Automatic annotation (TrEMBL):
Belongs to the phosphate acetyltransferase and butyryltransferase family. PANTHER family: PHOSPHATE ACETYLTRANSFERASE. InterPro entries: P_Ac_Bu_trans, Phos_Acetyltrans/Butyryltrans, PTA_PTB. Residues 87-302 form the Phosphate acetyl/butaryl transferase domain. This is Phosphate butyryltransferase. Its EC number is 2.3.1.19. One of its GO terms (molecular function) is phosphate butyryltransferase activity. It is an enzyme of class 2 (transferase). Coiled coil: none annotated. The lineage of its organism: Bacteria, Thermotogati, Synergistota, Synergistia, Synergistales. Keywords: Acyltransferase, Transferase.
Length: 311
């Protein structure tokens, strides 16, 4: 496949996949929000997804009515005991093979994630680190940027960062990026023993050189400017295939990653979506503040990634 260079192209590719193979099934925990229904309707009408919804049926019916949706187009599992039970019901649909993707509705994030991590029916894959990845199409750039981890792992060590890179590389591969360039971010582009992020970056670069992290090119440390600007890299005489050409931006910790992600969203003209990856299936963790378009694009990404995981 050709490299996807925008999120509109991602949506088109999801439509292409599902036109050939049928829509992916998404299990949504506590699906009783009209805004969520708007995004689900967009995905359903685009032909890329069908949905199994858990929660109180009366509240789901009210949300569907408010969004102008026909509940006959959805499979509903009536569940009124607790948010925790709604999450377990939804994640079990995925772990049992009845659904392909696990998605958050109007429940608290902690309950949603507890379902994902449940030892009996959850989606943890061995000892692998589960991580979050945002992906952005920013006006003025001819490719997507992946930012990880800005939402899930707070202060990952080197081993966890290696897993986070592997997860995001697998996602980038599903977007047609054959050998993504990974920039390990820090405040400076030189290894400084007093700055742990630079030490981690050097270790991850060495792991990549020794084939412990495959399918990509990893280098660092990089300050943000010389990771994304070839001119900046040239001025600072940084000789690296990643310098100025990074696809994946590995944040040193959640504070830096979260600030970078939100700076992109609020300070640039962009489209943004995100997924939890590294589990046995794609996981859509959206915010109530996300627009229906952002939720649709996250669903499209999950559809594309789910298809790649089965190849």
């Amino acid at each position: 496949m050709e490299q996807l260079r925008s999120l509109s192209a991602l949506l088109d590719y999801a439509k292409q996949i599902t036109a050939e193979k049928g829509p992916k099934c998404i299990a949504v925990a506590k699906a009783d929000d009209p805004g969520l229904f708007e995004a689900m309707e967009d995905a359903r009408k685009a032909g890329i997804a069908r949905f199994t919804l858990t929660g109180e049926r009366a509240k789901i019916e009210a949300a569907a009515k408010a969004a102008g949706a026909d509940l006959a187009d959805y499979n509903v599992i009536d569940c009124s005991a607790s948010e925790a039970e709604m999450a377990i019901k939804a994640v079990t649909e995925v772990s049992s093979g009845k659904a392909d993707i696990y998605m958050k509705g109007q429940l608290h994030t902690a309950n949603f994630l507890r379902g994902m991590l449940n030892k009996e029916v959850g989606l943890r894959r061995g000892k692998n680190t589960i991580s979050h990845c945002f992906f952005h199409h920013i006006k003025g750039y001819d490719h997507l940027f992946f930012v990880t981890d800005a939402a899930f792992n707070m202060y990952p060590d080197v081993a966890q960062k290696a897993d986070i890179i592997r997860n995001s590389v697998q996602l980038a591969h599903s977007f047609g990026i054959e050998c993504p360039k990974v920039a390990c971010l820090a405040a400076v582009e030189e290894v400084n023993p007093d700055m742990p992020a630079t030490i981690d970056a050097a270790a991850l670069t060495a792991m990549n050189n020794r084939k412990q992290i495959k399918g990509c090119i990893v280098d660092g440390p990089f300050a943000l400017d010389n990771a994304v600007s070839e001119k900046s890299a040239q001025i600072k005489s940084i000789d690296s295939p990643v310098a100025g050409k990074a696809d994946i931006l590995l944040a040193p910790d959640i504070e830096a990653g979260n600030a970078l992600f939100k700076a992109i969203v609020y300070f640039s003209e962009n489209e943004t979506a995100g997924l939890i990856i590294g589990a046995a299936a794609p996981i859509v963790l959206t915010s109530r503040a996300d627009s229906p378009r952002t939720k649709l694009l996250s669903v499209a990404a999950a559809v594309v990634f789910a298809d790649s995981l089965k190849k």
